[in-house]
Amino acid sequence: MRAVQYRTVGAGPAVVDVPRPEVGPGQVLLDVLAAGLCHFDVSVMAWPADAFPYALPMTLGHECAGRVAATGAGVSAVAVGDLVAVYGPWGCGTCEACSQGRENYCTRAVSLGIRPPGLGRDGALAEQMLVDDERHLVPLEGLDPVQAVPLTDAGLTPYHAVKAALPVLTPGATVVVIGVGGLGHVAVQLLRALTSVRVVAIDVDAKRLDGARTAGAEEVLLADDRTAERVRDLNDGQGVRAVFDFVGSQSTLDLAAAVAGAEAHVSIVGVGGGSLPVSFRTMPFGATVRCSYWGTRHELVEVMALARSGAIVVEHELISLEDVPEAYERLRVGRVHGRAVAVPGAGDLARTGGLNR
Ligand code: NAD
Ligand code: ZN
Ligand code: ZN
Q1: Which atom of ligand 1 is nearest to the CA of 37?
Q2: Which H helix or E strand runs over 21?
Q3: Looking at the 3D structure of the chain, how many domains does it have?
Q4: How far from chain centre, in Å, is Cα 161?
Q5: Which residue CA neighbors atom 7 of ligand 1 most closely?
Q6: N- to C-terminal Cα distance for the chain?
Q7: Are the beta carbons of 86 and 22 closer than 8 angstroms?
Q8: Would the N or C end of the chain have less CB density within 10 A of its end CB?
Q9: Residue-wise pLDDT tens digits, 205-251
Q10: What is the span of the domain harbouring residue 126?
Q11: Does 138 lie in the same domain as 61?
């Protein structure tokens, strides 16, 4: 089957033929109907060889929606033909965090060698993908696979970040979203759907800011060296209630610290390599700073329900598996609109009426 693999550190991704995976006890084999491209993959492919943590070659892609093609012994929750989304941050399933469905904060995954698909083991950018346990599958229940697939990360990750901040997101409070690309434009919609805050969106790209306005941002600002001042001007000279940083570079974290108000919630989601010093000298009284990672199993169920209700729609562009290397390059230089979603079985999906080209 065709698969997009990262094969050699420093070389780009390649579309190659690989053997079809075989389903073992407890496992589920999916025909991939849609797989999303995340900026995190671009970061992974920039890591140096001496610090590269995963075995290669590895099929990329940690957002997956598919149809069950085969089930291993003992699988009972899904059957061949079922349409499902894959919960990506796999954990051990039994530690305290996992038992509460918070596998994204599993305390044992690293020591047990358990990795998310596409991030240390073969992922979704292929015709088929193996899922280790049926508990990682959420039924699509009417959602289009292409619409559903970005929800598994570009939807789930901002949902998790926003939910953690809900206690301070009171009506009328001003909230800043930095970086309104794949994840960030969903964050704006989630803030609209879940709260009555005033959203200020910040990006370096004017087109993204148009998208953020459509998504529900009241104010949009093109990032420059006066952004912090302009944010405060928009908020009666005060710091803001929350900042969600979907870039995480030094300049955006400096901006986050500069605009945070007393008791602000600062959520760092982007992995842009910056750092934010936390002390009484650098942050306002009562501020909370959180490194937010992916989301919980039940939050994926919730974010899919929100999408089903029409409250969030992930902007996306459809590509084929063969187009993925070029799309990663466009993602790297900021030329993807919303989420790039690869559709391996375009013919099949069109026949079932699921492909909205
Ligand atoms: P993306 O490329 O689709 O979006 C990034 C956006 O940030 C773009 O709109 C870009 O124009 C904007 N941007 C870049 N530099 C900026 C700056 N200096 N100031 C303001 N805006 C700027 O990326 P994505 O797939 O949405 O991912 C966003 C980030 O989140 C990445 O760092 C990714 O690795 C990370 N991520 C983290 C998690 C997690 O669990 N913490 C999960 C998924 C992705
Ligand atoms: Zn991701
Ligand atoms: Zn665990």
Answers
A1: 25
A2: none
A3: 2
A4: 11
A5: 179
A6: 24
A7: no
A8: C
A9: 999 999 999 999 999 999 999 999 999 999 999 999 999 999 999 99
A10: 2-152+296-304+312-352
A11: yes
